[in-house]
């Protein structure tokens, strides 16, 4: 039997326009007004009881330190381990260091289900509790699941809406890209960032709501509302940036990136947690740096009524100071350009990715002066409010990090402060050029993606 | 002082057409007829004297085995080392193994200089001797240099035309992409694959000649003429594939790739060469597998009159049997599609890349039967000649591998032998879809790239 093969178009050419249409809708979508959202989120938080208590690492259930290495692991062998990392870069103010690191080799799914309602794409968002969120409940993607999660290593309830992302042909894939997460805290971790579109009637469960891209943009102007998992997916959405041109061709920028990669030599080697230099167990049962810098590795006991399992314990990383991540922006020939930094992070799979212009925890650079100070840090930290186009506090993945808040900014610069011909390691990209790159994995780091999500959703317009 | 910023178009939209125009020119370019080429190459080989002698590893100059690990290294600490690798995949007929591996963390440059001559893009190709080439001299890119090479670790002569690739703005970058090399022999190695275009008058040195893409395609129909370094760059050229559609959207295929990546768990760990299980020193001073399978690690002494240094010794890997790499091709809706395989190789940076449908050294699978036999291997190995569209022997990088020949094929299949809905791990891509993917690094492996080079240069038309 021979059947006629139906060829498809390689690309859904309507997609960028449909996304832009959704991003332009603010105030109210087909289902909920943005003004109602805060009340809805509070209601969802109130509908369930959550409790997070600190416990010594030694008192975690099902987690224990390996006698030989001190590495923390779950008895199932799944989820993640906390190990040590030794990094040698040979450059900058910190050319070599050791630290604890989260090793999570499984590839998880961060998935957004979208659907046209009244002709406008709506995104199925979830009010989700994560123990590390400063406010516990934030707005998450439809699905946020480690492989252990969705293969049921914890023997809990099924992940809702998961089959839209795991069963081919259940929905139309709009994007699916492997993206890294925090290279300072994770060893070569990445997740699939997925958006799929359905034609099904989907009745949102209690914790879920349909929002337009523009409504999500409104929420991205608020502190600690849209979680990291949602932000990173939104950053990958192929938006139609209407730009007359760019300072450099895409080929030039790709070449600069390849040259940046080749000029750095980074060695990152996992070592036993118990041998990490400068870190030790503290009286409260956590693992801390000798100056109490960077983060603590600590334990929590979590009780919740609406998660796949009702109670559990786990380690978390708790940063000791607030981070700062900022893009400088300039207009060249009236087209906005963002200054990207080819950054080394010890946990990157391949040495560098593009980050924002500035990405530091300022506290750990206070003792440095002159040429040792990171470029542009002071410019951002002391920026005239009139130059600040975006300034919002977001927190990082609350399933691994406790109160990991960072201040995200977009700051106007000029030729005197950020020249068109920038210093080595930096280059100007239009938002459209970064949008093209981020459709592939491992070019753009998670902090830069948070800022790109603000652009994609029109939370800020340059 | 304010100057008007001149924006550029992000892409050279004329490039695919200009490449296609060059690919269509066969028989003679502006400088040399293809018929003259073989004579020219022989002349270049005769103009210089080369001599390659086998020597025991222990008699290499400047190379020695580390007393603690047995790892082979150069006294400068540069070039590469030969170490051990322990790989665990937990799947297939070989779920775990150890082997020697080349560790070359430096990122080298494989560069092609192109120029429009009489309105047609010509490629500056080089007749280059590499000690491992079965015929010593093959056609290479303009520049082929490790970072040690071009930063002069060997204190030799400068690499010709190098500055076109290392000095920004010396030429126009057409592409620059980090691509992996053989994951079975290299630990996470990759090189920059670069094409730059110049407007300069370039007088080719004795070893260099200008050829059109079509002429290179003619040479890609010959055994052992166009070297691997040239092939991998040519594979990345953005050709205009005129296809009415595809079986699957690009987003579907990217999603399939991400799902393939996430379902495999590969652990690859470097170990001391002296501890590699099943490998040992042989009487001739090489390192061999207990069954004399796979490859030998052996030494050569090289004498040459036209290389950056006149004489040197080095280790090489010498495969013990010929490899086979083949794409199956089918037409769906009259559009050709190639069956790609998401392959695990122990030396890949990130577990998998897309390879040809079949990529094996058949000898090492002879003992396997039934479901243990790799899919499609027998189909390719016993293909009716009438179904074979391409069948050429190419050799791999002669700077690291001795007589590493592989037979490269493209073979027609049908629904009975290769269904439209293929087995797990396989998917159908149009050449245009693979061409889009290969413009980014680490999606498409080096064997698949050799076959894509044959398509890009019209060595074979499907």
UniProtKB/TrEMBL annotation, chains A, B:
InterPro entries: EvaA-like (IPR005212), EvaA-like_sf (IPR038153). Residues 34-236, 251-455 form the dTDP-4-dehydro-6-deoxy-alpha-D-glucopyranose 2,3-dehydratase domain. It holds the Pfam family Hexose_dehydrat. GO terms for molecular function: lyase activity. This is Oxidase EvaA.
């Amino acid at each position: 039997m021979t059947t006629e093969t139906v060829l498809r178009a390689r690309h859904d050419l309507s997609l960028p326009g449909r996304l832009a249409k959704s991003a332009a809708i603010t105030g109210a979508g087909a289902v909920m007004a943005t003004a109602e959202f805060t009340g809805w989120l509070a209601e969802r938080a109130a509908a369930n009881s959550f409790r997070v208590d600190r416990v010594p690492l030694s008192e975690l259930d099902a987690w224990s330190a390996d006698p030989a290495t001190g590495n923390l692991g779950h008895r199932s062998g799944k989820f993640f381990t906390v190990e040590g990392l030794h990094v040698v870069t040979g450059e900058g103010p910190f050319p070599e260091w050791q630290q604890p690191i989260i090793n999570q080799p499984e590839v998880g799914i961060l998935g957004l289900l979208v659907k046209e309602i009244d002709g406008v794409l709506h995104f199925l968002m979830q009010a989700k509790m994560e123990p590390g969120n400063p406010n516990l409940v934030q707005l998450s993607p439809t699905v946020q699941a480690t492989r252990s999660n969705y293969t049921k290593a914890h023997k809990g309830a099924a992940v809702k809406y998961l089959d839209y992302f795991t069963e081919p042909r259940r929905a139309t894939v709009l994007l699916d890209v492997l993206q890294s997460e925090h290279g300072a805290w994770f060893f070569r971790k990445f997740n699939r960032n997925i958006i799929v579109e359905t034609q099904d009637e989907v009745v949102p469960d209690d914790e879920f709501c349909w929002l337009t891209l523009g409504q999500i943009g409104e929420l991205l102007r608020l502190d600690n509302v849209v979680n990291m998992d949602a932000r990173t997916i939104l950053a990958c959405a192929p938006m139609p940036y209407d730009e007359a041109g760019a300072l450099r061709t895409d080929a030039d920028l790709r070449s600069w990136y390849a040259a940046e990669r080749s000029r750095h030599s980074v060695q990152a080697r996992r070592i036993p947690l118990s041998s990490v230099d400068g870190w030790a167990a503290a009286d409260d049962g956590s693992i801390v740096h000798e100056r109490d810098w960077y983060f603590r590795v600590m334990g929590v006991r979590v009780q919740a009524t609406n998660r796949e399992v009702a109670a559990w314990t786990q380690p978390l990383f708790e940063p000791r100071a607030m981070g700062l991540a900022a893009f400088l922006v300039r207009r060249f020939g009236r087209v906005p350009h963002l200054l990207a930094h080819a950054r080394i992070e010890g946990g990157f799979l391949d040495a560098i990715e593009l980050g924002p212009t500035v990405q530091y925890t300022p506290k750990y650079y206070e003792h440095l002066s002159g040429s040792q100070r990171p470029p542009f840090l002071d410019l951002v930290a002391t920026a005239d409010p009139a130059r600040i186009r975006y300034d919002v506090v977001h927190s990082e993945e609350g399933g691994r990090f406790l109160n990991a808040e960072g201040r995200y900014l977009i700051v106007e610069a000029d030729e005197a402060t950020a020249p068109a011909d920038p210093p080595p390691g930096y280059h100007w990209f239009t938002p459209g050029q970064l949008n093209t790159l981020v459709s592939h994995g491992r070019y753009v780091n998670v902090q830069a993606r948070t800022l790109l999500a603000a652009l994609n959703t029109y939370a800020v317009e340059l």
